[in-house]
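Exam revision sheet. Question 4 asks you to relate a sequence to its structure. Input first:
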Amino acid sequence: MKRLDGKVAIVTGAGSGIGEATARLMAREGASVVVADLDQAEAERVAAELDAAVHVEVDVSDEESVERMIETAVLSFGRLDVLHNNATDSSLNAVDTDITTLDMSVFDRLVAVNLKGQFLGCKHAIPVMLAGGGGSIVNTASIDGFVGRGVRAAYGASKAGVVLLTKSVASQYGTRGIRCNAVAPGLTLTPGAVNNASEEYVETSLRNYPMPRLCTPHDVAKAVVFLASDDASYVNAATLMVDGGATVYMANARLHGTGEATS
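Answer key, C-alpha cells:
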C-alpha cells in the first residue's frame, strides 16, 4: 500500500522546484493532486504528467484566489486531506540586503506571499479537512527563519513567522485531527537556484554544509511526504530541518584543507 493512497492533496508553488518534486512524489505515493501555481502554464504541465491531478492558477497572497484553489480540490476529488503550503517568493533576494535601505514594498511582498499566503491556505483548508475528519498541513519554512545571515532579513522574518504559524495551527486543531508541521530547507538546487547561482557561489555554499552535496528538491519532497503521511501520525507542531546539518555547523578552515582554523 502506498503512503498516500486515497488522499487528496494540494501543493502550492507546484509548477517548479520543491513544489513540483513534492507533487510528483505525492502522486507516486497514491494521492490525487491539485497542482497549484501562479504560473498556470507550468502548473498545467506538471498536472498533465501525473495520473490523477488537476491544475489551478493561484495567487496565494489573494484570499479569493486561495478559496478557489480549495474549491478546486473539493469539486475535483470530493475532499481535502493534505495541504503543502509551499509557494514562496525568492525573486527579491538580491534586493533584500540592508534593513535601513530596504524598500518596504519588498518587505510587504515577501510577507504577503511567504507568510500571509500560508496563513490563508490554512484558514481555508482547515474547515474542509475538519468536515472530512482531519488532515495534514505541511508548511515550507527555511533555515533563514532560524539563523541571522547578514542579509535577507525580510525573507527570514517571513519564514520565522511560518514556524510560529505552524505551531499555532497544530495547537489549535491537533485535538480535532489536523496535524501541522513544517520543513526548513537550506540552499536547495531548484532550477531557479541553479540558473541564478555561479559555480563559485555553489562551491562556497557547499563548504558551509557538513554533507558531500547540496540539497535537491526531491530531498525536501521526501520529508514533506513523510510529514503528510500516516508514518508521521504522532508528529505535530514540528519543523523538520532539511539542511544537511547547516544550522548546527560552523565551517572550520581546517576541515577544508587550509591548515588554519577559523574563529
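Marking note for examiners. The beta strands are 8-12, 32-37, 53-57, 82-85, 135-140, 178-185, 239-242.
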